[in-house]
Specification:
single chain, alpha+beta, Fumarylacetoacetate hydrolase, domain 2, 2 domains, twelve-stranded mixed beta sheet, five-stranded mixed beta sheet, 7 helices, 34% strand, globular
Amino acid sequence: MRIGVLAGRAKIVTSGRAFDIADISGRRFGPEPMAVYEAWDDFVAWAATADITSAGPAEPFTIDKADAPVPAPRQIFGVGLNYRAHQLESGLPEPDVPLVFTKFPSSVTGPAGTIDLPGDQVDWEVELAVVIGRRAYEVPADQAWSHVAGLTAAQDLSARDVQMRPAGTPQFSLGKSFPGFTPLGPVLVTPDEWVDRDAVPLSCAINGEETQSSTSADLIFDVPSLIAYLSGILPLLPGDVILTGTPSGVGIGQNPPRFLTDGDEILTQVGDLTMRHRVAARR
């Protein structure tokens, strides 16, 4: 199943058509997307037997009109140095535990559009994003997937100059939380739809040039490990988002470092999900 959002309303998306969840469920679920995640178990049970495609009128679903499939998560977690190749390009030792930072929900944006550059050191980071569907607290790794609503594509855009200050004790969250710095989408895809949910391909291209390409099989801490670690500290809530890390090929790792400039186009691909953004210098 695929969940998308158009004009702030939750949709089930199939074959490029979007069916309004509130309408086809008789107002049992939605229309607010986050309300669907709050009732995820009941919603999935209902959807398993519902005749979606004949339940009512549909509208075209395109990334240009779509909102983020999780437009207002309460918590967003990022994980640093979580791909082996990226850890090596960073010249840092492999972490013993996940390196976790947070991003603020006001940074979430949809799968297409223009994102303002707050400076001249903004970097790209394609990521596989995990969305929680069931409250998770002290969940063991072997039960983690049962708490996942689905996966989606993400970018963890990062203003490196802000991220790395103050010198010696950097504070990542602000440098990664400018408006538009957490694109998500275009849809959430439930785990059962992925060919291999533990080896999802992902890539990023800047102006048509591929800069990153890998699969989530290269994760140091896989999805169950991240859920077990985070939920061992605090509850993960329905609709929360975990950005699982980025592969090698980020701009700061190039020689010389390369950053996004006015007019650049970012193409983000995770499995068969595609996002497309253009960045613009502030005028």
